[in-house]
Amino acid sequence: MWASIVRRPFSRVRQKCKIKVLGINQWASFEEGTTCSLSTLVSSDIFPFQAPPRADLQNKVRAISAFCSKYGIDYYHFLQEPGIPRLFGDLEKYPADALGTVKRPHGGDMDGLDRTLCISSPIVQEHYRNMTRKFVREYPDVKGIWFYNLDGRGWLCTPELCERCKKICADSPANKYNPWETQALLISLLAETAHEVRADFDFRSFAAVHHKGGAVEKLLRSSSGYNSLTGNWNGSDHDIMVPDVAEPAPEFVVAQKVCAERLIPMVAYFSFNNLEQVSRSLPFPFHVCDALNKFKGWGITCINEVVGPIPEHNSINALVMREFQSNPDQSPEVFLPALAGRQFGEKAGVEGNSWIVSQHYTRCRRSVKVHQLGSE
Ligand SMILES: [Zn+2]
Questions:
Q1: Is the separation of the CB atoms in 272 and 240 below 8 Å?
Q2: C-alpha of residue 157 to centroid of ligand 1, in Å
Q3: Domain residue spans in the chain?
Q4: How far, in Å, is the centroid of ligand 1 from the Cα of 196?
Q5: Separation of 126 CA from ligand 1 center, angstroms?
Q6: How is 315-374 classified by DSSP, letter by letter?
């Protein structure tokens, strides 16, 4: 199965139809920062002083997930937790034993510190059980969660700054923002609670990104309840072109291994068309063909497209991606001239020449170990 996920706001039926035509059968929404927290979409009976959910965002998520369902596309909601509590209520109103402190790698106060909800606290755990049950129940067209945190609005306590978490995080460094023990606790709590309400709810978690080396395997083996994992071949955030000398990172390989053992999908995410720091799609398709071919060789069967494709943004890349997802072994040199003929008619020769130049450009980029467009 080649399952593609994209994460662009899309509000028009026409665009959804195009997405479906391209063979994409899943969608992960990254609509707006605040929708990444459950508190924006459901109320908490445990912390009733929090601001009420936003009706506009509730309606938006319900409408998009319903449209997706109508067109046979599974809708995943992008989730970041534990949400920074000051964004949802007066910090003074939270019980003292609900709060912890994180030393963030970016953001926070002058010292990089921020208050967060302590996932080791029983009252916070009940808060998340309460909201997760409501979310799964009240958004029936949402297929699942796409869980990513330790960035943006979702932070765990730094162990040395929280007595409760310090007791749990016996293996992780005490002074880092990314202990795997409390991350495993959070993933298990959210996933298992979701399944209490809906057994087929799909909880998809990031395998690595903010965890490296042996911590990744400990995290994945200690967490329970997740239905699939997602990760990039280089164990990092994202990438748009795979160097020819590349080998999958150990973090990616171990995630594949754990997924194989648990008989669940490992979904490789990759930016075939756009990076967050590039304003337009790359205007040539060779990196798409090459990446899909390499991914097949690495045993990757599910793809998670990050940021694009936008069909009207770069129709060539979108069409090439569709064709090479179903057949990664075919030759770009054979396929692309035929595509150019269909797309450009008499001008196909001119376009073909420009593609030859861009093919050379792509090969040059791939020949270096770390290309300029990479995320690291
Ligand atoms: Zn804590």
A1: yes
A2: 5
A3: 13-331
A4: 25
A5: 15
A6: HHHHHHHHHHHH-TTS-HHHHHHHHHHHHHGGGHHHHHHHHHHHHHHHHHHHTSSS-TTS
Ligand 1 centre and the CA of 82: distance in Å? 11
State the pTM of this model: 0.87
Q: Does domain 13-331 have CATH number 3.40.50.300?
A: no
Which are the contacts of 119, defined by CB distance < 8 A and separation ≥ 6?
Answer: 82, 125, 128, 156, 157, 165, 182, 185, 186, 189
Calculate how far, in angstroms, residue 122's C-alpha sits from the geometric centre of ligand 1: 11
pLDDT in tens, the chain (376 residues): 444 555 444 444 445 555 566 667 888 776 655 578 999 999 999 999 999 999 998 998 999 899 889 988 899 998 999 999 999 999 999 999 999 999 999 999 999 999 999 999 999 999 999 999 999 999 999 999 999 999 888 999 999 999 999 999 999 999 999 999 999 999 999 999 999 999 999 999 988 888 888 999 999 999 999 999 999 888 877 778 888 888 999 999 999 999 999 999 999 888 877 766 666 666 677 888 888 889 999 999 888 877 666 655 667 777 888 888 888 889 888 888 788 788 777 777 666 666 666 776 677 777 766 665 654 4
* Interval between CA 127 and ligand 1 midpoint (Å): 14
| Cα of 77 from ligand 1 centre, angstroms | 25
Cα 172 to ligand 1 centroid, rounded to whole Å: 14
